[in-house]
Amino acid sequence: MFYFFLTAGSLLSSHVLASPSPRATTTTTADVLNYTFPAGANWPEPLPITGDWFFVHDPSMIQRETDSKYFLFTTHDKAGIITSNSLSGPYAVVGSVLPDNSSIDLPGNNDIWAPDVHFEYGEYYCFYAVSTFGSQDSAIGLATSKSMDPGTWIDHGEVWNSVTGDDYNAIDPNLFFDEHDKPYLAYGSFWGDLFQIPLTPNLMAGVGTPQEVSLNSSDTHAEEGSFVYKHDNYYYLFLSAGICCGFVEDDLPQAGTEYHVVVGRSEFAHGPFVDADGVALLDSGGTIILGSHGRVYAPGGQAIFVDKYYDSKVQSLQEREVFVYHYVPADGVSPYNDSYSSLGLNGINWSSGWPVLTNLNV
Ligand SMILES: *[C@@H]1O[C@H](CO)[C@@H](O)[C@H](O)[C@H]1NC(C)=O
Ligand SMILES: *[C@@H]1O[C@H](CO)[C@@H](O)[C@H](O)[C@H]1NC(C)=O
Ligand SMILES: *[C@@H]1O[C@H](CO)[C@@H](O)[C@H](O)[C@H]1NC(C)=O
Ligand SMILES: *[C@@H]1O[C@H](CO)[C@@H](O)[C@H](O)[C@H]1NC(C)=O
Ligand SMILES: *[C@@H]1O[C@H](CO)[C@@H](O)[C@H](O)[C@H]1NC(C)=O
Question: 295 vs 33, 87, 252, CA distance in Å?
Fold first, then answer.
């Protein structure tokens, strides 16, 4: 979910982006590790993952119906596929959704972004984005598979697109069904921020008029990575706000302007979404639920999936919602380098009516 590179003092192409640069001040590593978001949150650590490191950005995770194996999908690597038999790993990089690139005829069709995978009508649907940094000439594509294994994906090409001058950028897709069971794609990144478009019943094309559902009318319009999720009586719209990537350890952006996860909710799938203070997401609202803390820097690209797991305490199969995201480790071989993005997994406590991340015990 992505991409908009901010380099020191310069912005890579966008008509909404005049100066001033959000990097007005620079911050040291120590400042960042000391920074607390306004929410004063005490965010939990991600689940420790065993095994070798693997790259993850804009993750989508799902369990296979037949064997409960976990499939994790990532930006780059032609929509990389990573599998594991346990949430805590070890994870194995097994291949790609589109090893021969996307059939969409646009620059970027060999570097797939932000896969979003769902099980519908007895098949797995992978929505993905084709674009290049800072460009609005973008498209959302679809591939399907019966098993999710590498080599089984069929590319159906373009579902929806945007061109220079549109109100939106057609990347970061997320499939959801509204209260009338009608399929929609949530999407968007910068420009007019986040939108929804109806899909045809076979999920293969956008139809009708897109509706804007979230906008931060600040100088950068830095919202992307929509994820719409129904829990109890509300539809929650999750998004990633701020600077996603391009970090340099000694020249980090002002603390708090890096990627973090924000949420709003509505009784209706198409909004209006409001934050916990009642501010509309269309009016720059949003409640932060996850930001940098400890070795977790710039978390985002979030999704939720329902984990079916065996609970040894009650000796039966249970279900729980798992919050999936990527973060840039502030430690390791190359601190703050988003080429080393890692997988974050947490539980969710909804008791307040708002999602609060928890430790995940596996
Ligand atoms: C955090 O800030 C406090 C107060 O400014 C300072 O004493 C402390 O050294 C800082 N910690 C780090 C890790 O920078
Ligand atoms: C996919 O894109 C790569 C460039 O990343 C290119 O080398 C390769 O030939 C393309 N594959 C096909 C099947 O077109
Ligand atoms: C981040 O890591 C990549 C891959 O190792 C490397 O090519 C790049 O130079 C690193 N970037 C920084 C800012 O260190
Ligand atoms: C809106 O953008 C401004 C400037 O980038 C930022 O300070 C503010 O936190 C953003 N609002 C939300 C809800 O993310
Ligand atoms: C969820 O959070 C509430 C409020 O902090 C707490 O009382 C409750 O015990 C939590 N639920 C679980 C299952 O941890």
Answer: 8, 20, 14
By most ligand atoms within 8 Å of CB, the mutation choice from 190, 240, 284 for ligand 4 is 284
Domain that includes residue 45, residue range:
6-358
Residue of the nearest CA to atom 4 in ligand 5?
351
pLDDT confidence band for 10 (50 / 70 / 90): very low
Q: Give the up-direction half-sphere exposure of residue 146: CA atoms within 13 A in the CB hemisphere.
A: 0
Domain count of the fold of the chain: 1
C-alpha 257 to ligand 5 mean position (Å)? 30
Contacts of 315 (CB under 8 A, 6+ apart): none
According to the model, what pLDDT value does residue 361 have?
Answer: 85
- Among left, alpha and beta (phi > 0; psi -120 to 50; other), residue 177 is beta
CATH assignment at residue 33: 2.115.10.20
Q: What is the pLDDT of residues 160-187, one digit of tens each?
A: 999 999 999 999 999 999 999 999 999 9
Residue 312 Cβ < 6 Å to ligand 5: no
**Residues 111, 224, 275, 307: which is the catalytic one?**
224
Query: pTM, whole model, 2 decimals?
Result: 0.90
Provide the token pair at 17: 């982006």
Residue 1 in domain: no
SS (H, E, C) 195-219: EEEEECCCCCCECCCCEEEECCCCC
Longest dimension (CA), the chain: 58
Q: What is the dihedral of CA 135, 339, 73, 44, to 10 degrees?
A: -110
